[in-house]
Amino acid sequence: MALTAETESRLYRSLRAAAGAAAHLVALGFPTAVAMLARPGSSLFSWHPLLMTLAFSFLMTEALLMFSPETSLLRSFSRKVKVRVHWALQLLALLCAFLGLGIITYNKHLNGKAHFVTWHGLMGLLTVLYAGGQCGGGVLLLYPKLMKNWTLAKLKLYHATSGLVGYLLGCASLMLGMCSLWFTTSVTSISWYLAMLCPLITSLVIMNQVSNAYLYRKRSQH
Which UniProt keywords apply (predicted)? Predict the structure, then answer.
């Protein structure tokens, strides 16, 4: 029996809501698991995995889910409030990322190790620099008059697109970190594969959210 358009729409919204709920759980659960594994304070290095997972798994994920019509934790609030919370979460994520980068750089210096010679190190550096640029670009949305030849709608579209790229870079950096000697020594077997699924799940949810926002904006223009 064929599903009606209304039933399909309701089913689709339910699936998006379930995926968003899973993303919230993963966003919080993954940094928690890493914190238990790294035991922050046990060494200088122990702060690096915690800060990076907080930045790119928890804070940045929640900042982007803020605008989801199905799974935002502030659905009943105005867009103005959501934008402010988004900004606060993104700035906290950037702060954690820069601290995490600084700590691992200093730790390598203390141990006489080379800097940024692995794919994880290079991707991490690129991701943190990109995140800094993305936050700087977000200022244009607060002061759109600075870009006189660009409409606010176009600025929002480019900011969302470039933000998605930055988020995917962060997820890729986390996944490369899980291929490091420290992580593979501590996490083995099925647990390692489950850990790798965490950034995959959140990235798929965020990509779906951004693509739906783009399609909605296209339909509203016609």
Answer: Electron transport, Heme, Iron, Membrane, Metal-binding, Transmembrane, Transmembrane helix, Transport
Domains of the chain by start residue, with CATH: 45-220 (1.20.120.1770)
How many residues are given for the chain? 222
pTM of the complete model: 0.89
Q: Which two tokens stand for residue 55?
A: 């930045």
Are 34 and 56 in contact by the 8 Å Cβ rule? The answer is no
Position 218 scores a pLDDT of 61
CB 45 within 8 Å of CB 89: no
Determine contact, residues 199/174, Cβ cutoff 8 Å: yes
Instruction: For residue 170, give the nearest of 92, 59, 67 by alpha carbon.
Output: 59
> In what helix (H) or strand (E) does residue 3 lie, and over which residues does it extend?
none
Token code pair at residue 119: 């794919």
Do 153 and 217 contact (CB within 8 A), yes or no? yes
Report helix, strand and coil shares of the chain as percent, to nearest 5. Answer: 80, 0, 20
Instruction: Please name the amino acid found at residue 110.
Output: L
- Compute the mean pLDDT over every residue in the chain, rounded to the nearest whole number: 89
The stretches of the chain forming alpha helices (DSSP H) are 5-38, 47-53, 60-65, 79-110, 119-142, 152-177, 181-186, 189-220
Note the pLDDT of residue 1. Answer: 44
